[in-house]
Automatic annotation (TrEMBL), chain B:
Pfam families: Cytochrom_C_asm. It is found in: Membrane. Residues 128-352 form the Cytochrome c assembly protein domain. This is C-type cytochrome biogenesis protein CcsB. The gene is ccsB. The keyword Transmembrane helix applies. GO terms for molecular function: heme binding. The lineage of its organism: Bacteria, Bacillati, Actinomycetota, Actinomycetes, Micrococcales. It comes from Brachybacterium endophyticum. Residues 61-91 have a biased composition (Low complexity). The chain crosses the membrane at residues 12-35, 100-122, 134-151, 158-180, 192-221, 262-285, 300-315, 327-348.
Length: 592, 358
């Protein structure tokens, strides 16, 4: 037990050599001391505000060097890290375009000029904004400037011998001084050398004047290795993320049950790709959606009722490498196919509807993607455009309701499952405006320029239909509701660098563990001949938080100069006033 | 599929646990006020006496050089063997209020853990599928860690109030505002191994951050007491009605340096857990949504927490920030943990449909 003394960095430092070690570390990472001396001058210059900068000692090169040292100092790294944390916060407070563009648009339209101002500052694209990028790029430049010199120093240290034994050991941790009879310095130091070797120390035995010998040993180089690994791995994570962003692609598709998809750009509803992605690489795979199942909670629990409990999509895949196979996709269980990954991310209903124009021609037929409006019950919007209808173009607009009711809130659905599927539709006539050449969203239509079809009484007809129903309107056109299918929405994605990024992230943890838990320490043993024996001294120096050093040093001393078997330690009174110099028998450290 | 009877039993046990924790809090609170009410100058005398005794016994390790706090810590901080010595004998000889508090806390912890196990059995999954379960599981872990650590380090039991009070507040909030009946998970959470790993580690990280923040606060307090004491004794003034009791408290817990070391240990482990939380969260997000990082509010805040704790570790190695300035970063990190846990779950909505409070 040695909670008695910590050589931790936060702790008071009784011995000056620990400060040496500190200084050494500062120099390894930073230009600590020197910055200080230069800094006041620099700020004086700023205050004087004179147009002509007078830098007699620094010069251009000196100024650059000075700026570089500032940038790579620990204080700057700390400051930039803090800034990074603060800069990330608005990204969670304002709706971000990359997360949900429609929310951003809504915010913009609701908050007027204030929102425009925020937008100009990049508050809706925080993570790609100039200021956020500047912070992390500076941080990583600083990191490089910090790691490279430390890497050099570390490589040199790993190859060099441990530093010389200090001449006075009594100021160091666990200092023990014992007189050992009947051995010579050489045997004792050789024994110490062997023992420290076994303890994975780097060891060197030195001859000293007067026939004395000392052993100097150092251990824990892995600590610095780990620290460097950690920081370099962070760099690699950033590189992996950036490279992945440049070379990835992601596309969205939605497929109705029974229908298929083959991987080509034209088949995607939307497709994003990185700047370096080459579309001709799109892997040629195909699949058919055989079945889609969804289950919803029917318990009486108000938080849970209607919440989904299961989404499953059965697909038959045709992969150029693996051939044909079937697979069930679920959330969290994506399909890996031809180097890409396909995720089941959404679903909805596709009511099968047939529309005939007043002349009796079929102008639209088949499953229609109904777009969920976002309520619990999957009330979904239906839009059918029939540009070929005669004498006028037609549009059918309304809602699909899996479990329909129409009450004072209008038509809506009370439960997402198909309990009482209904369509609530209105039929319009007029010019759909498709010829204007402007591309239109297939799921939207502007009805303001269209006229609703009216019933005999001159009211706008609202059709309410269940599967199997067919209705003829006053103008002779008809709509029939043939059945309901489901569709599933998939994301297909490929990021060639994600494995690299993951390995880098895991390596950073490895480095972190090493750098936090490997103690870096030095241990010295000195044997000075005296009479027919030697005076043995053992001591150590902790170069990191290391609360076991004292025990280990004492255990080493105990091994080298064991107690005579017939002399139990406890029987011997300690010498009064002995603080760090202990006479031979008093090995009673807390180690035993 | 959900065994509602077991879930009811679990809820009942949680209520019992809360009652026991209230009793523990009363015990610890009585102990703390007893300690802080004794006159501090009496204690000063006692302390010098103890120090003299220890010195004659032959203290082999040179004590810390820091004058005020370092010396004050000597009687209490020398490890379990020594805390059984006369100086700390009052805690072991009879079941005082502190012992009572400790026993109540220990029984409570056992019930608490049992309740979480039952909730897990009732739902057929790990008991951290929503905010209520997360709160109850992390508070169980905090109390269990506290009870376990203070089996050996009896001097830490004095801090029972400081651990019990925030945990009780958390449990009461969870019990009244966030409780939802035992239920199945939404499909995006239905991934057993990542649910166990990612959220399990997040719970450990949160618990470590919580304990770490308490230790960091005590470290700052202890240093402050040292400074105030030095300043007042230089002027020949008394410590006064505020600093007197506070110093009586800080004199009985480990020294500022030892708290700093403990704080670092908790946070270094905590930082590793936060790093894993981030990485495994990213892996899970990649499985579930096909993006390993999307700057969702929950992700943003976990990132912020991670960076602030990185600041803490950095600060400890930066000239001019060592020791107490670094401790402020630790507290800032915990503030972010709390924000991530409350505001982000309840106010800011993201993809993480975690709170279960739709
Ligand atoms: C990218 C942002 C950075 C992060 C997240 C980060 C994080 C950390 C963490 C968590 C530690 C403590 C664990 C350990 O000892 O390995 C640490 C240590 C360290 N960092 Fe960084 N760091 C960053 C950038 C930098 C930069 C730019 C520098 C150079 C100025 C730097 C220099 C150091 C040094 C010298 C240590 C060792 C401190 C010691 O001896 O304990 N770091 N860093």
């Amino acid at each position: 037990m040695s909670r008695r003394k910590h050589a931790g960095r936060g702790a008071a430092k009784p011995d000056p050599s620990a400060e040496d070690a500190e200084q050494q570390k500062e120099q390894m990472g930073t230009a600590g001391g020197r910055d200080r001396r230069i800094a006041p001058e620099a700020s004086d210059l700023r205050q004087s505000g004179s147009g002509k900068p007078s830098l007699p000692k620094l010069g251009v090169r000196g100024t650059l060097l000075f700026l570089w040292r500032q940038l790579t100092s620990m204080q700057t790294a700390l400051f930039l890290l803090l800034l990074l944390a603060i800069a990330a916060v608005p990204g969670s407070l304002y709706p971000q375009r990359n997360v949900d563009p429609s929310k951003t648009d809504q915010y913009l339209s609701e908050h007027g000029s204030w929102a425009k101002f925020l937008d100009a500052l990049g508050f809706f694209d925080v993570f790609s904004s100039v200021w956020f990028s500047a912070i992390y790029l500076l941080l990583f430049v600083s990191l490089v400037g910090c790691v490279v010199p430390r890497l050099n120093v570390h490589l040199r240290q790993m190859r060099s011998r441990p530093p010389r034994t200090p001449s006075r050991l009594n100021r160091f941790v666990g200092h023990t001084r014992v007189h050992v009879e009947g051995v010579d310095a050489e045997t004792l130091t050789a024994q110490a050398h062997r023992r420290l070797r076994r303890g994975r120390y780097r060891v060197d035995t030195l001859e000293e004047p007067g026939g004395a010998r000392s052993v100097t040993a150092e251990r824990g180089y892995l600590r610095e290795t780990g620290n460097l690994l950690f920081h370099i791995a962070l760099l690699c994570v950033l590189i992996g993320v950036a490279a992945g962003g440049l070379t990835q692609y992601r596309g969205q598709i939605s497929v109705v049950e029974g229908q298929g998809f083959s991987n080509s750009l034209a088949e995607y509803d939307s497709f994003d790709k990185g700047a370096w992605y080459d579309d001709s690489n799109l892997p040629p795979f195909r699949f058919t959606l055989d079945d889609f199942r969804a289950e919803y909670d029917t318990s009486q629990n108000e938080h849970r009722f209607g919440q989904p409990t299961k989404f499953e999509a059965d697909v038959s895949v045709d992969d150029p490498d693996k051939g044909e196979f079937s697979k069930t996709l679920r959330l969290n269980h994506p399909l890996h196919v031809a180097g890409s990954t396909m995720y089941l991310l959404g679903n909805g209903y596709a009511p099968e509807i047939t529309v005939k124009d007043p002349k009796g021609n079929v102008v639209a037929q088949g499953p229609v993607h109904a777009v969920p409006t976002g309520d619990m019950g999957y009330t979904s919007q239906v839009v059918i455009k029939a540009p070929d209808a005669q004498p006028q173009q037609m549009a059918v607009v309304g809602f699909f309701l899996p479990t329909g009711v129409i009450d004072e809130k209008g038509p809506h659905s009370q439960f997402p499952g198909l309990v009482n599927p209904e369509l609530a539709l209105t039929v319009y006539n007029g010019d759909l405006g498709l010829d204007g050449g402007t591309p239109q969203n297939a799921y939207q239509v502007d009805v303001s320029s269209l006229t609703p079809v009216q019933d005999e009484d001159g009211n706008q007809s609202l059709l309410r239909m269940s599967p199997g129903d067919s209705t003829t309107l006053a103008d002779g056109s008809s709509v029939s509701f043939d059945g309901v299918k489901r569709y599933a929405a998939f994301d297909v994605r490929r990021d060639p660098f994600q494995g690299f990024t993951l390995v880098a992230a895991l390596s950073s943890v490895l480095g972190l563990v090493l750098s936090l838990y490997v103690p870096r320490r030095r241990v010295w043993v000195r044997a000075v001949p005296e009479g027919d024996g030697v005076v043995l001294e053992v001591a150590g120096l902790a170069r990191s938080d290391d609360d076991r050093l004292q025990d280990d040093v004492r255990a080493l001393a105990h091994d080298l100069a064991p107690e005579p078997a017939d002399a139990p330690d406890a029987a011997r009174p300690p010498a009064p006033g002995a603080d760090s110099t202990e006479p031979r028998p008093s090995h009673e450290g807390p180690a035993q | 599929m959900i065994d509602q009877q077991l879930a009811q039993l679990s809820n009942l046990l949680i209520i019992l646990t809360i009652v026991l924790y209230v009793l523990a809090l009363i015990g610890f609170g009585a102990d703390l006020s007893g300690v802080t009410q004794r006159r501090s100058d009496q204690k000063l005398r006692a302390r010098t006496r103890e120090r003299a005794e220890l010195a004659t016994v032959g203290a082999d390790a040179p004590r810390s050089a820091s004058p005020g706090v370092g010396a004050a810590a000597a009687p209490t901080a020398t490890g379990p063997e020594d805390s059984a010595a006369p100086a700390a004998g009052t805690t072991t000889s009879s079941l005082g209020p502190r012992g009572f508090g400790y026993v109540m806390a220990s029984i409570g912890a056992v019930l608490h853990i049992t309740a979480m196990v039952l909730r897990g059995v009732a739902t057929g999954r790990v008991p951290w599928g929503n905010m209520y379960e997360f709160s109850m599981s992390s508070s169980a872990l905090i109390i269990a860690l506290f009870v376990l650590i203070s089996i050996r380090r009896k001097d830490l039991r004095l801090l029972g109030t400081l651990v019990m009070l925030p945990v009780l507040v958390l449990m009461l909030i969870a019990q009244t505002a966030w409780i939802i009946p035992a239920s199945e998970l939404t499909p995006s959470l239905q991934n057993t191994h990542w649910l166990i790993i990612h959220i399990g580690i997040a719970i450990i990280a949160t618990a470590l951050s919580g304990l770490g923040a308490i230790v960091a606060a005590l470290q700052l307090l202890s240093t402050r007491v040292g400074r105030v004491r030095a300043a007042r004794s230089a002027d020949g003034r008394e410590l006064g009605r505020f600093w007197g009791p506070v110093s009586a408290l800080t004199d009985r817990i480990p020294s500022a340096e030892q708290l700093e070391a403990l704080c670092f240990r908790l946070h270094s482990l905590g930082f590793i857990c936060w790093t894993f939380t981030l990485i495994f969260g990213a892996v899970w997000a990649n499985e579930a949504w096909g993006r390993y990082w999307n700057w969702d509010p929950k992700e943003v805040w976990t990132f912020v927490i991670w960076v602030v704790y990185a600041c803490y570790l950095h600060a400890r190695a930066t000239r001019g920030f060592r020791g107490n300035k670094a401790a402020w970063f630790a507290l800032a990190g915990f503030a972010c943990v709390i924000i991530n846990y409350t505001l982000v779950n309840l106010v800011i909505n993201g993809l993480h449909s975690y709170s279960g409070l739709g």
